[in-house]
User: What shape does this take?
Amino acid sequence: MKEYLSASTKPIIICGPCSAESYSQMQVCANDVAKAGVGWFRAGIWKPRTRPNSFEGIGEEGLLWLKEIKEQFPLKVCTEVASPYHLELCLKYGIDAIWIGARTCANPFSVQEIANSLQGIKDISVLVKNPPIPNVSTWLGSLERIEKAGCEDLIAIHRGFELGNNGIYRQSPDWRIPLELKRLRKDLKIICDPSHIAGKRELVKEISQCALSIGFDGLMIETHPNPPQAQTDKSQQLYSSTLKDFIAQLSFPSLLEKKNESLTLYRQEINDIDQKLCALLGERMQMSKKIAKIKLENNMSVFQLSRWQEVLNNMIQQGKDYELSEDFIKEIYTLIHQESIRVQTRYSKEK
Ligand code: PEP
Ligand code: MN
Assistant: This one.
């Protein structure tokens, strides 16, 4: 009888390299993952790369390495599939779970083809990453296609979204989308992939903790024995030898007790908004410097009363659309304007 991944009463933790690269890399990594007490091992065999002529995965040989890992270690194994052909090979090598990557998830034709090939296959778990765009229907649609094919062990993965400007992240973690998915589908487990959100090792811990605190059901974390030598995603993979300590430092809220989920979620969103506010203020001051240069060249005074009145009136009007009081706008814009005057005065003195 198959043990369902989604039926786990413990957090679901999946670790392993972004890509399978060599037999020894996979062996060392699997050993570290097993030692960390993690039960699931991941490795990309076919890699969806943005540009051609980059490493596109080791291919079928890597499935043999995964099969061996499954036999040698107390690990179940999974990899990404993007076509019925990939799935067919995974079944041939007894892979325990497959995941549908972000780019594939965004394409209903591809997902449907995989779903058609999954018809009648019961003993493989399927994980579906969110599509690159923050749209819950596309994600849900892909999950439904797999479900309609008869898959009984289905899990969603939040791996962040491509927003054009992702701030400090590689992919923006818009937590509202997975939470909306959870609201629509309470029965569905959702895990977080902090690695593709972070893009950098240093950020993986805080994103992992945030996901666990919000109530995610687990994590998929990229780990590599020697990340700087990795063929893909070298900056975000954790050193696999540090995985045990990394996991020990995370706090896993009881899976039954998720009382303050919303508070944690809203705080994380506030942090994201504050970071954007700060970046925008910085950009605004840079613009002030450019204006200072023009004022200096044209012998204009730094403070221009009519322009200040125009800015303030504009913002008082705009503030109304966002339910921001006139007093608040006056106070905040007085501060912003004063800082802008300071920046411009300093610029003029230095020249
Ligand atoms: C991956 O997990 O290595 C991967 C390519 O992920 P994503 O589909 O989230 O980009
Ligand atoms: Mn990767």
Remarks:
- The chain is about 50% helix and 10% strand.
- The CA atoms of residues 118 and 149 lie 6 Å apart.
- The chain has a mean pLDDT of 94.
